[in-house]
Amino acid sequence: MTFVSFYFLVFLIALAVAYFVVPARGRWVVLLAGSLLFYAKAGLSFLPFMIGAALLTYLGARKISDIHEDAAVRMASASFRDEKKAIRAAEKRSASRIMWVTILLVLACLFYTKFAKRIAALIAAAAGAEDPALMVIIPLGISYYTFSTVGYVLDVYWKRYKAETNFFRYLLYVCYFPHILQGPIARYDKLGVQFREPHYFDYKRVCFGAQLMLWGFFKKLVIADRFAPFVSNVLKDYQKASGSLLFFTMVIYAIQIYADFSGCVDMARGMSQIFGIEIDKNFAQPYFAVSVEDFWRRWHITLGAWFRDYLNMPVAVSGGVKKLSRSMRKKFGPRAGQNTTTICALIAVWIATGAWHGTGWNYMLWALWQGGIIALSVLMKPVYPKMLKVLHFDPDSPEFHVFRILRTFLLCGIVPRTIVKAPSIAAAGVIFRKMLTHPGLGAFKATVLHYGLGKMEFLIGFAAVFLLFFTSVLKERGWNIREHLAGRNIVFRWAVYLFLFFLVILFGKYGPGYNASSFIYMDF
User: Fold this and answer.
1) 173: buried, middle or exposed (CB in 10 Å: 19+, 13-18, 0-12)?
2) Residue 283 pairs with which residues in a beta bridge?
3) Separation between Cα atoms, residue 354 and residue 369, nearest integer Å
């Protein structure tokens, strides 16, 4: 039951009615029941994994919180500095032990579901045997709820807030259905605390939520699912396709994956807003980024923020990295020490990011490309102003700004996506070689309409992309489009709503005989 199915719409309407009918203090129970039903519909075998992860992290965080509270009481009654020091040391030792056991057990489950088959295949290959027929259940949303629960345990360990005492409220935070498919990755202090607040029916808020959902449907059904068959068909035939057709296909894929992923998140944020629950924004016009680092501040924002807070910073302040940084500072100067800290943290983050996205070597190569460019930009930062001055480039000119956007789109939207979308790393090499040495513009014109999309389908798709681009420009310039529409008269407002609604109805890919492609980021 995905967000784009008819049954889900029936489920959502029924849940919303039940939610606003029951008393305000019991509405979180309705959301919990609906979330468990939604998750069970995806697969009953998934439930033990999710509930088990929730129970483990709930108990671990409760124990850590109890250790902190006990230490605080003992500290209050302690009189001597040595006694207080001993209490703090014992607190850190006990809490750290619980924290590591809890997190490693949760991550072990994620590691098993992601890597068990690949490890078994590698062992079999080394032994000269056939690949074992290993059956591994991969629970829906395991990457997302694992990161949410690990972040929660670490926040409690770092005393950012106390542990939740009601397991079922915590379970709702873990399994809340709008964000379970593709995120955003939730923080307890932003999402979980909202389940304690009363949420009443608000017409404007419900309209805003429905608008955002409709915009998500437009992205998914009119753009992403329209282009999906074309991209798949061309890449299956990559050996015969011309370089220009392959480049064009990867541009289309960059649009497709953005429309797919951000469309799902828009639906999630919209339906959650109907219930009065705000979940984090996950995109900020990423294809207007001017650097790779800027791109990752705009794309999958909650994943980047998670790695920054729970991996980048702990690695940067770890004893080993500090020692290495001091050594480099003594030998090569302050900047070398600072760069050492930054690059060590980048290595850890991008290895983890590659593993999170996929288990193949192509994902490690993808991570090496992205992280390598960011590391290079860190090292070259003092040189850039001198280079621009020598080349007589004005860094503040509109032309240079456009150049940086196009360069970043190539570095983030084309090259790394080709690495992971191609059938294999060798196929990616062939595709790159064709793009650079065999463009074949004549072959492009002759074959582009032979891969599942006719001229009219392309025109509809490009018109939809233009509308997406236009709204993105307005957002980039600071417009709040929904607030702007809300301030217009009712005739204009509803004309816009109906226009978008009929765009989805008339040009969306759905209905009998059509299988809406699953959300791309559900595979990660």
Assistant:
1) buried
2) 299
3) 10
3-state SS class at 283: strand
Rg (C-alpha) for the chain, rounded Å, is: 25
User: Please, what is the Cα angle at 286 between 494 and 208, to 5 degrees?
Assistant: 25
Helices and strands counted in the chain (H then E): 23, 0
> Which residue reads 């590591």 in tokens?
100
Looking at residue 356, its pLDDT comes to 83
First to last CA, the chain: 18
Does residue 98 sit in helix, strand or coil? helix
- Distance, in Å, from the CA atom of 408 to the CA atom of 370, rounded to the nearest integer, reads 11
Give pTM, 2 decimals.
0.89
CA distance 255 to 257: 6
Q: Cβ atoms within 10 A of the Cβ of 446, count?
A: 12
8 A C-beta contact, residue 310 and residue 322: no
Convert 132-144 to b/e letters by CB count within 10 Å (16 or more is b).
eeeeeebbbbbbb
Report the DSSP beta bridge partners of residue 299. Answer: 283
Nearest partner of 141 among 270, 61, 33, 49, judged by Cα: 49
Report phi then psi at 299, rounded to 5. Answer: -105, 130
Report which residue type is found at 97: R
Q: HSE (CB half, 13 Å, CA atoms) of 314? A: 11
Residue 38: CB atoms within 10 A of its CB come to: 21
Alpha-helical segments (H) within 391-489? 398-408, 415-421, 425-437, 441-447, 455-476, 481-486
- DSSP letter at 224 equals I
DSSP 57-72: HHHHHHHHHHHHHHHH
Q: Which residues contact 188 (CB under 8 A, 6 or more apart)?
A: 148, 151, 152, 155, 161, 164, 173
What whole-number distance in Å separates Cα of residue 107 and Cα of residue 339?
A: 30
Q: Which long-range contacts (CB under 8 A, 24 or more apart) does 514-517 make?
A: 516/2, 516/4, 516/5, 516/220, 516/221, 516/225, 517/224, 517/225, 517/228, 517/260
- At residue 118, the pLDDT reads 65
- pLDDT given for residue 330 in this prediction: 86
Closest by CA position to 19, among listed 30, 8, 10: 30
What does residue 216 show for φ and ψ, rounded to 5 degrees?
Answer: -65, -40
Which one, of 228, 240, 231, lies nearest residue 430 by Cα? 240
Please list the helix, strand and coil fractions of the chain in percent, rounded to the nearest 5, in that order: 75, 0, 25
Angle between helices 334-357 and 361-380 (to 10 degrees): 160
The pLDDT averaged over each successive group of 10 residues in the chain (524 residues) is 83 94 93 93 87 95 94 83 85 93 92 72 63 66 90 95 94 92 88 90 90 93 92 92 93 95 93 94 94 92 91 87 87 85 88 82 89 87 83 84 93 93 92 90 86 90 94 90 82 85 82 54 54
